[in-house]
Amino acid sequence: MSTHKIAFIGGGNMATSLIGGLVANGFNANDIHVADPNEDSLTRLSEQFSVVTYNDNLSAIVGCDIVVLAVKPQQLQSVLRTLTPAWHSEKLLISVAAGIRIEDMARWLDTPNAAIVRVMPNTPSLVQAGASAMFANALVSDEQQKLAEQILAAVGIAIWVDDESKMDAVTALSGSGPAYFFLVMEAMEFAAKELGLSEQVAQQLCQQTAFGAAKMALASEESPATLRERVTSPGGTTERALHELEDGDLRGLFENALVAAALHSRELASQLGQDDAE
Ligand SMILES: NC(=O)c1ccc[n+]([C@@H]2O[C@H](COP(=O)([O-])OP(=O)(O)OC[C@H]3O[C@@H](n4cnc5c(N)ncnc54)[C@H](OP(=O)(O)O)[C@@H]3O)[C@@H](O)[C@H]2O)c1
How far is the first Cα of the chain from the last one, in angstroms, to the nearest whole number? Predict the structure, then answer.
């Protein structure tokens, strides 16, 4: 990636973790431009990584062949409209903004033939353990696809989906997913405290158990169902606990939860994709 220049529009949490990952992977910080209206953010990024900073978005993207949009979804429309004068067809646009569809981005950029990759990252990207799903429009070249993958892989795993509509399911699974696991941890810690453990002990054991289970699932080629069966001895304590969870229809609850999240993701995309009254 050494011959490429990347502009980040927005220098907040997501941009900071992506820039951190790129620099840690040997990408030249002088080839990273960042634009943000917040002077403090720019100073922090330039001190931390020696990136080149800008107060205005248009200047930041000049000379860059990759532009990463890392602003809030609500800001995307006005940001894209400001980039139009400096856009040309060789540039690759990568958006990490949740819920904004490619056709809306191309319209706001006023460039129907823009090469665009839409990414749905998740919050563990902030600790380099993210799970990002990506979709590229037909104008993205193979080389640009590889570049987008390298950028997102700097903060975790990056997986392509073959249809943009699958982003709603991705949002329901990995986008919102960290919150489901936090809720499960919260509930387990509460129950353990009720059973007499101190908050600190409950928290430490719960966190490490979640980490250990995820690590085992990642390291193993077995399905979660097989791994679960292996730790469930007949007549044992785990079996008793799982029986309670199945009885309470945990599977049904998760199915409902993911369906609700996917539906809402689609609704939000339609709302966010509307043009502001001008
Ligand atoms: N954080 C995550 O883990 C996560 C996960 C999934 C998806 N995402 C997506 O990533 C995007 C960025 O999220 P974030 O958490 O990094 O947000 P953030 O920390 O709020 O960063 C956004 C940055 O953009 C700046 N900004 C506002 N208006 C701008 C403009 N017109 N031009 C340039 N910069 C502007 C903001 O400055 P001010 O603070 O001054 O407004 C802020 O520094 C969002 O679209 C979100 O959906 C994030």
Answer: 40
Q: How far is the CA of 75 from the centre of ligand 1 (A)?
A: 8
Are the C-beta atoms of residues 137 and 156 closer than 8 Å to each other? no
Whether this model's pTM surpasses 0.90: yes
**142-165: per-residue pLDDT in tens?**
999 999 999 999 999 999 999 999
CA distance 89 to 61: 13
- Sign of torsion, CA 129 130 131 134? negative
Atom number of ligand 1 nearest to Cα 35 = 33
List ligand 1's pocket residues with C-beta within 6 A: 9-15, 35-38, 41, 57, 70-73, 75, 79, 96-98, 121-123, 125-126
Q: Per residue in 91-110, pLDDT tens?
A: 999 999 988 999 999 999 99
Residue that is written with structure tokens 């995307």 in the block:
76
Joined together, the tokens standing for residue 38 give: 């917040």
